[in-house]
Amino acid sequence: MHPAQVWKSPPAPKRTQPPLTDELLDTAERQLGVRLPESLVQLLRFQNGGLLRVCFPESRNYSISHFLIRGIGPGSGRIEKAAWWHEDPDFPSRPVGAEWVIPFDGDGHWDLCLDYRRSPTDPSGLRTDPAIIVIDSELDPETFVGESFDEYLGQLVPAED
Hints:
about 160 residues; four-stranded antiparallel beta sheet; two-stranded antiparallel sheet; SMI1/KNR4-like; alpha+beta; 8 strands
């Protein structure tokens, strides 16, 4: 899927980060301890986070209202390990291995995440090739979405305006 098919235009200023540089990407990956999927990086190089023109089909929406992908940068709403279940180790819905589950969309009750818990590491020690899951505090604690970011992208369909 071409990035122009993914992002809403024009970009929403409060939902985007500054243009993605190699330095920003390298810093974020080292802080997270992971290598972000190449297809996600390509999307973020085109537009560094924002609202989507695509969504999950009604028949497979995982009970979430997925409408954005967070970017990489200094602003709020960025890809980081800062979900509600990262903060509270005693939270009942906290996933096992939470430090390797990184949200890229969410509303406080659910998070759509890169799941690196079973991922291999590259020669630099960063985890690679995450699966995609939903963490939900109210329904199923954890729902599998896809084996890869590409598989997740393949499920998305044009959103109705």
